[in-house]
Design a protein that fits this description.
The complex is a heterodimer of chains A (about 325) and B (about 280).
Chain A lengths: L6 E3 H15 L3 E5 L3 H4 L2 H6 L4 E3 L4 H13 L3 E5 L2 H7 L1 H9 L6 E4 L18 H6 L5 E3 L4 H12 L5 E4 L4 E3 L16 E3 L4 E5 L3 H14 L4 E5 L2 E3 L3 H11 L2 E8 L4 H12 L4 E6 L9 H7 L4 H14 L1
Parallel strand pairs in A: 2-3, 2-4, 4-5, 5-7, 6-7, 10-11, 10-13, 13-14
Antiparallel strand pairs in A: 1-8, 6-12, 9-11
Helix pairs in contact in A: 1-8, 4-6, 9-13, 10-11
Chain B lengths: L5 H26 L4 H6 L1 H11 L14 E4 L5 H11 L38 H15 L6 E6 L6 H12 L5 E7 L2 E2 L2 E2 H5 L4 H7 L3 E6 L3 H10 L8 E6 L22 H10 L2
Parallel strand pairs in B: 1-2, 2-3, 3-7, 6-7
Antiparallel strand pairs in B: 4-5
The chains are: A alpha/beta (about 325), B alpha/beta (about 280).
């Protein structure tokens, strides 16, 4: 059972997982763009200096060098801040990595609003949209440290390009080490319920779970599902949840355009339309501030989720 | 392709270059489009490589020890396809499928469609950056293969070219050879007018490369330069190849009208006469 005060950095889990995999897989290489201290690839760099490449502040080159390494049979993990890795180098990702379905794992950190104080230029609220629109690309948002480790291990052993979105913030510990196995086709139910289903992932699971506690007091039973794999999307789960609950809310630390809300709506509108609300950043930029303050400013709090649940249930 | 008679060798290479130009003209005419002018400017560069210094493996295109070739100026795909067919990567007849729906010969090269390509290219600047990654893998694995990459001079306006150039020197990639096909023209005019490249040689030198000037249409000169670069250690190598866009057919040479415009029947006939 989860505890709101038990939190850890998924970045650390990523760094540890790389070191672990580095021992097992001699063809695994890691590339970074002068941010290895922040992305936590520095752990790997220290242990395996010959398999770590700092490309400097040059994200386009970072991506295509990784492509070249992949073409020679290496399994590259590439990290920098999400906005620069996905944004600056988007066309390299599309035209060199994805077009030929190259195995390169883009593990971009400091996504969403998590770089609070640094402000809008360093925050990333569009990355899921611009990654999931690329053919061949897999898009995964791990929830906690245990799931991050599992996702990184899955990525190392699965072909094709992948985008894995990591926050700078500590996230709530949800899964038990040793008991959890990641499967992109199965979305874990974090909280069971029957009146409405909330799909969320990453940092926003905590806000969603807080909302369910509030809803319980109001006599509403809300289910929370961890929609970790946005692509491939487990469509059958989404359709089946829509059939059961008849009302869906999605919650994401991302622009409401193009993220998990859009992905879920694309499936439901064509297969089993039900009332739906999308909680996310309403087509705005972030700004400087503590993340909690930014959540309030940008309508991402448990109160906003509760309101959306009430609205969607009325529409049913 | 070496014998005891260098003159005979050069004559053979010239015959191949002529045939490659014919194939380029015919396949782009059939396709109704394609960059034959840009292809013509790098024909001798490609012929002197594929029939000389470059050790690919036509029988095993995934051989990990093969040399790699990247056409970073991917719009010169017709030139590469013609050479690959000449080398036996696929039948020459397939050239006429260029740019057709479902063809392995896409308008710009796509690796997963055509065995023998070492990477896709076409989005300018990305080829050389990918080539840096391939060259790095050779160093990591202590393999002896080399990576040859052909860039356009207009392509050097892309920022990623210089990111790649900086990193290749940083990693001391003496197994990476970039050949800049300097034909001084880009789609909307002379490079000097569109966006001056300044002193390209000085730029590549300043980025830490060993730079050589070469006449990009003189295959004896190209091959002599390929010999010379073998003594370079711990630095990537750049050849600045002086070329003529459209070289080989006088009425096309340096005439930007032909950058992509297909030849009419009369022009095609005349062009082929120059190439027999």
């Amino acid at each position: 059972m989860y505890n709101f005060s038990h939190c850890s950095h998924t970045r650390d889990a990523y760094g540890h997982a790389l070191v672990e995999l580095g021992e097992e897989m001699p063809n695994l290489v890691v590339l970074d763009s002068d941010l290895s201290g922040s992305t936590k690839t520095a752990k790997f760099a220290k242990k395996f200096p010959d398999r770590f490449l700092d490309i400097g502040i040059a994200e386009q080159n970072l991506i295509d060098i990784a492509a070249g390494l992949s073409l020679s049979g290496k399994i590259p993990f590439v990290s920098t801040f999400a906005i620069f890795g996905c944004g600056r180098a988007w066309e390299q990702i599309r035209n060199t990595l994805a077009l030929d379905n190259l195995t390169v794992n883009l593990v971009m950190t400091h996504a969403g609003l998590s770089l609070g104080g640094d402000g809008a230029t360093h925050q990333s609220l569009e990355d899921i949209a611009i990654m999931r629109v690329i053919p061949n690309m897999q898009v995964i948002v791990p929830a906690d440290s245990v799931e991050t480790r599992e996702v990184i291990r899955y990525a190392a052993k699965t072909k094709g390009p992948k985008y894995i979105r990591i926050s700078r913030r500590r996230t709530m510990d949800i899964f038990q080490k040793g008991e959890y196995h990641f499967n992109p086709a199965q979305y874990p139910v974090i909280e069971d319920g029957s009146d409405v289903t909330i799909f969320s992932n990453g940092c926003m699971l905590r806000e969603s779970l807080k909302a369910t506690q509030e809803l319980k007091k109001q006599g509403i039973s809300a289910k929370v599902i961890n929609l970790h794999s946005i692509k491939p999307l487990a469509k059958e789960i989404i359709i089946s949840e829509a059939k059961k609950a008849g009302a869906i809310v999605t919650v994401e630390e991302h622009n409401v355009i193009g993220g998990i809300g859009s992905a879920v709506a694309e499936v439901l509108s064509q297969n089993n339309p039900v009332p739906m609300k999308i909680i996310g950043v309403n087509d705005r930029f972030g700004g400087s501030g503590h993340v909690e303050e930014l959540y309030r400013e940008l309508d991402l709090t448990p109160e906003h989720i509760c309101r959306a649940v009430h609205e969607v249930m009325k529409m049913r | 392709m070496r014998s005891k008679n260098p003159q005979k060798d050069q004559d053979k290479l010239k015959d191949i270059a002529r045939k490659v130009r014919r194939d380029i003209i015919l396949m782009t005419a059939e396709a109704g489009g394609g960059h034959y002018m840009s292809s013509f400017s790098c024909v001798e560069i490609l012929v002197s490589l594929f029939f000389g210094e470059f050790h690919g493996d036509v029988n095993n295109p995934e051989n990990p020890d093969r040399d790699r070739f990247v056409i970073s100026k991917g719009h010169a795909a017709p030139a590469l396809y013609a050479i690959m067919a000449e080398c036996g990567y696929f039948p020459v007849e397939e050239l006429k499928t260029l740019r057709q729906c479902g063809s392995r010969l896409q308008g710009h090269p796509v690796k997963h469609r055509l065995p023998g390509l070492d990477t896709s290219s076409g989005s300018l600047g990305q080829g050389i950056s990918t080539a840096v990654g391939i060259a790095l893998s050779a160093k990591m694995d202590k393999r002896k293969f080399r990576v040859f990459v052909v860039l356009g001079d207009g392509e050097c306006q892309e920022g990623i070219v210089w990111e790649a150039a900086m990193s290749a020197a940083h990693f001391k990639l003496d197994n990476l050879i970039a050949i800049i096909d300097k034909n001084n023209l880009q789609i909307s005019g002379p490079t000097d007018k569109v966006m001056s490249l300044g002193d390209l040689k000085a730029k590549w030198e300043a980025f830490g490369w060993a730079v050589f000037d070469v006449n990009g249409h003189d295959m004896a000169n190209l091959q002599a330069t390929f010999e010379k670069i073998k003594s370079v250690k711990n630095k990537p190598i750049a050849l600045i190849a002086d070329t003529i866009k459209g070289c080989g057919v006088p009425f096309i040479e340096n005439n930007l009208h032909y950058h992509t415009a297909p030849l009419n029947e009369e022009e095609l006939k005349t062009a082929l006469e120059y190439l027999t």
